[in-house]
Amino acid sequence: AASATAREATPVAGPLAGTLDPVGDQAALTGAGTALADFAARVRWAVPDGDASWDAGFAFRDQPDGRHYRLMFDSSGGWTFGIGTEPSLAAGQAPLALADGAVNTVELVVMGDRAGFSVNGEFVSTLDVSALRQPGDVWFGAGFSAADAASGVEMRYRDFTIWDVTGLPSVTPVVPSPVATTPVAEPPTAPETIGIPTASVPTATATPIATATPVATATPTPPAATPPAAAGMTAVNVQEQNDSGVAALATITEVEGLAYVNLAVRGGAPGELAVIHEGSCADLGAPAFLLNDPDASGRSKTPLGAPVDEVRGGGFALAIHPGFQDLSTTLACGDIGG
Hints:
mainly beta, eight-stranded antiparallel sheet, six-stranded antiparallel sheet
């Protein structure tokens, strides 16, 4: 979703680059200088050399009382989400590259009561961010854990960028977000480095964590006709609307009881957005899930984190829109189940 937002709007902050150097038991943080509740963020960081533990991540929606959300990734390949130093609200494994010098890219979208994030182009989880609603700055930090801060490793980062998505329709939570994700195998480390001059970065104590809206976008290539639904699979024929030339085929399958969407779009263009809405094509309601960006072949895969029977049982429609800034225009649409 962050990548789609970038194509649709000018960043309000960044891209920023520098080096974070936690000291003692304090995290090192760099703020974007914003005051937002709803935003998309992207950052890339390089894994520090050596065997010392490390962590890095986002802090956002800081409140007047000091509470804030924190989405943190660490040297074990795990992620945690919560409010400051309070017990974690969610956790799991992420497809992080962990070799010395490996570069990781994290994208986060926060809208209304929900958020979602991806790691190295792979959607990981949605989050519930309904507890803290006031706007605040968005921070990238390292050394959130006292043990990681004490290790004294420097964290080099670049492309720390923020987009304002205020005013887009809030995503209505349909089901509670899962507390943890299924562990994901670590992908091969890309031969990439981050060459950034050491920057002077303010150091501060961190205490954030959060949950939020689903993430991702789509625009690929589908078969012309809907095949018969196989056992355990629901097919959705997403038909052209408004002479757009865009059509799609989606299949909704079950993975450990949760819905998993495969989408293929025909006639799409970069920046278009695939969304599962409440309601029907005749009366689209609030967005419920944003689908992931397609690959070069025009296909996307999105784990929704919602019970499959609830998603394909009716009451939802899959629509394709020109982008985040134009959800009122529908290029193609198909009702789900029912």
